[in-house]
Design a protein that fits this description.
By secondary structure, the chain is an alpha/beta fold. It is about 50% helix and about 15% strand. The longest helix has 22 residues. About 35% of the residues are buried.
Length: about 230
């Protein structure tokens, strides 16, 4: 259970606020006004603290509860502005568009690629094949992973394919993330950007049906992840 002790608002108010922010294209000022119209007085700085604290915790639970994914992956990066500079959001989906993993990085290089591939494999297991773009860093990162797989006795290595059109499903999937982050006008700190994106990705997984619903609404599933 996620600990909500020490906050001055009911858990239901916090969860509604966090869900609304990571699900819809609103700013903190917008959300502050929306809540005020519903009789809840909370300032935008407090809303930010809630998102940064609780969104990644709920995202971790979403990862743990998501349905099994396919062994054919699509991996690419998109751009997120933090402190006025572009950072790189590594994202992976399977051949059906189901979310595998994501990672915000300040750099787009071999070290970041290796870190992301190792993380995604740690969570989802070793894929049969991975489709990437023409990025040399991503290719080198996967080749490095294959070397490790080959010499650690884990058996097969990963087939690497560099076919741009096969990543169209991931390019389309990026659009939801970018649409939600657009009104945020960039992030002021890397850690808050990573936390917020984790919440957005968790809600996106819920929208795609990756977590068993049993008739529950998207918000109800989100709240259950915090229970």
């Amino acid at each position: 259970m996620i600990d909500f002790k020490g906050v001055d608002y009911p858990k239901s108010v916090i969860l509604h606020a966090v869900f609304f922010y990571v699900r819809y294209a609103v700013s903190y000022r917008d959300l502050e006004e929306i809540l005020a119209e519903r009789g809840v007085a909370v300032d935008h700085a407090t809303l930010n603290r809630w998102v940064v604290k609780f969104a990644p915790l709920i995202a971790d639970r979403a990862q743990a509860r998501k349905r099994k994914t396919a062994k054919s992956w699509r991996i690419d990066e998109t751009y997120i502005k933090v402190k006025g500079r572009w950072t790189y959001l590594y994202r992976a989906v399977d051949r059906d568009g189901q979310t595998l993993d994501f990672m915000l990085s300040e750099r787009r290089d071999l070290a970041a690629a290796r870190r992301f591939f190792n993380r995604a494999i740690g969570i989802n297991g070793v894929p049969d094949r991975v489709v990437i773009d023409k990025s040399g860093a991503n290719l080198a990162g996967l080749q490095a992973v294959n070397v490790i797989l080959k010499f650690t006795g884990k058996g097969r290595t990963v087939e690497i394919r560099q076919v741009k059109y096969l990543n169209n499903i991931l390019e389309q999937d990026h659009r939801f993330i970018k649409r939600i982050t657009a009104p945020m006008m960039g992030f002021k700190a890397f850690h808050s950007a990573a936390a917020t994106i984790a919440g957005i990705e968790a809600v996106h997984m819920i929208r795609k049906g990756q977590i068993a619903a049993n008739g529950a609404s998207a918000f109800q599933i989100f709240a259950e992840l915090a229970a």
